[in-house]
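Protocol step 4 of 5: obtain the predicted structure for the target chain.
Materials: sequence only (see below). No template structures provided, no constraints applied. The aim of this step is simply to have a reference model before the mutagenesis design in step 5. Sequence pasted as it appears in the construct record:
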Amino acid sequence: MAATGVVLLAADQVSTTLVLRLHPATGTGWVTVRLVRNTGANGGFAAGYPVLVTLTALVIAALAAAFALRARGRGTAICLAAVLGGALGNLSDRLLRSPGFGRGAVVDWIHVAPLSGSFNVADLAIQFGVLGAVLTYLLREPSREDSPAAQASQAP
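Step 4 output (C-alpha cells):
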C-alpha cells in the first residue's frame, strides 16, 4: 500500500520537473502540454486562498492515510493509497514551489482537448483513486463481521 503512494508521488514530481525543464514542449491532437500554475483547488476553485487550500490538502492527505490504514479490502486500501500519493504530490507543490512555503502553486500540465482546464499526474491519482475506492467498497463481498447476526452479537 505504501509503495503505491510513494510511486505516485514520485511520478507526479518527476513528470512535473521534466515538463518545467522542457517547456514549451507541446503536443498536437487530443492531448497537449499546457502549463498552468494553479494556486487553487481542482479547476481553480478558491484560487485567491492558497494557505486555506494548502491546509485543506493536509486534511485530505491525513484522511486518505487514515482510511487506507483502516480499509478492509486490499483493493480499497490501494486506491486510497493512490489518493494519498496524489494529495501528497499536490501538497509538495504547494509547500515547495514559488512563491513560498504554503503558498506555492500546483503545476498542471496535461490538457485534453474537449476539457477546459489542465491537470497533472497527482490529480489523476486522486480522481481515479477515489473512483476505485468507491467501486471496490461497493462491489466487495460482505464479510462475516458485516452480517446482521454478527452485528447483533456485538451489541451491548
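Step 4 remarks: The mean pLDDT is 84. The longest strand covers residues 31-38.
Proceed to step 5.
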